């Protein structure tokens, strides 16, 4: 029903060797761009998984963008994606206030 | 990946042969979940890596069955942020609590009962056994299944007996060093979710696709 690319083997490789999670991030970016280019639906969870890899690499803006994509593609994820996005925005705001 | 599939084709697969009882799906149909949360696996095997490896094999067959499946690695991160580092602790939470936390319609708990390799005479026998329990967001158990699978290299190929013995010894040694469980885990999930006698009903996305095809 969906084109998963290398999602499963990449996640397996990442669990086996955590340094491979970066390869997974790049792999997901490429695969999602391909699907979007072909106007094909991105399988459930892939935007969010990429968002989480961004978050763990320290880019919360990119994470929020991916969580928003997940929510817009898959309405079932709305509750979780909104909650995660709200938390990240709150954290960003708190950090901005500390800096001032 | 391709070699893994090849290896699977070359071995003798043996599942449970006992005639399974067809279970009542009315609770599942009444709950009619659109989304399924897969929480980290409880591990009763001795291999500490098994839970993460098995976790990677569950989302794809379930999503292909037509459900929204929550991203498993993101789920893991969220649970850890909530203080749940141990799968045993996650499994001890009422399904309704987890469903509410993620806004999921159903929660799937998987336990790894077996994940081991045994060196039998000249072949390595690999065994996996998984237990699955799914609950709806109100806490009702809507589906469960146990899957036991085993494989060992097929010795029926031609060639001189000595050459054959050497080949088998070599492949058994390789299998013993790094037994390849993954094709077996994938096969177990496929049988349980898709082709088995108690396979879960098609989810909304597959049902919509079937409607379109008609």
What percent strand of chain A? under 5%
CATH fold-level topology of chain A:
Serine Threonine Protein Phosphatase 5, Tetratricopeptide repeat
Shape of chain A: globular
- Fraction in helix of chain B: 40-55%
N→C terminal distance of chain A:
50 Å
Please give the count of helices of chain A. 5
- Structural class by helix and strand composition of chain B: alpha/beta
> What oligomerization state is this entry in?
heterodimer
Number of domains of chain A: 1
SS element count, helices of chain B: 10
**Stretches with pLDDT under 50, minimum 5 residues of chain A:** none
Most extensive interface between two protein chains, with residue counts: A-B, 30 and 32 residues
Using only CA atoms, what is the Rg of chain A?
Answer: 15 Å
In short:
The complex is a heterodimer of chains A (100) and B (214). The longest helix of chain A is centred in the C-terminal third of the chain and has 22 residues.
Can you tell me about this structure?
The complex is a heterodimer of chains A (100) and B (214). Chain A has five helices and no strands. Chain A is mostly helical and 100 residues long. Chain A has helices at residues 7-16, 21-37, 46-56, 60-73, 78-99. Chain A has one domain: Serine Threonine Protein Phosphatase 5, Tetratricopeptide repeat (Alpha Horseshoe), CATH 1.25.40. Chain A is globular, with a radius of gyration of 15 Å. Chain A starts with 6 loop residues before the first helix and ends with a helix. Chain B is an alpha/beta fold and 214 residues long. Chain B contains ten helices and seven strands. In chain B, strands 1, 2, 3, 4, 5, 6 and 7 form a seven-stranded mixed beta sheet that branches. In chain B, a hairpin with a 4-residue loop joins strand 6 (123-136) and strand 7. The longest helix of chain B has 17 residues, at 161-177. The model of chain B is unreliable at 1-17 (pLDDT under 50). Classes of the chains: A mainly alpha (100), B alpha/beta (214). Chain A binds chain B through residues 1-2, 4, 7-9, 11-12, 14-16, 43-46, 48-49, 51-52, 55-56, 70, 74, 76-80, 83-84, and chain B through 1, 34-35, 49, 52-53, 55-57, 59-60, 63-64, 66-74, 77-78, 102-105, 182, 205-206, 209.
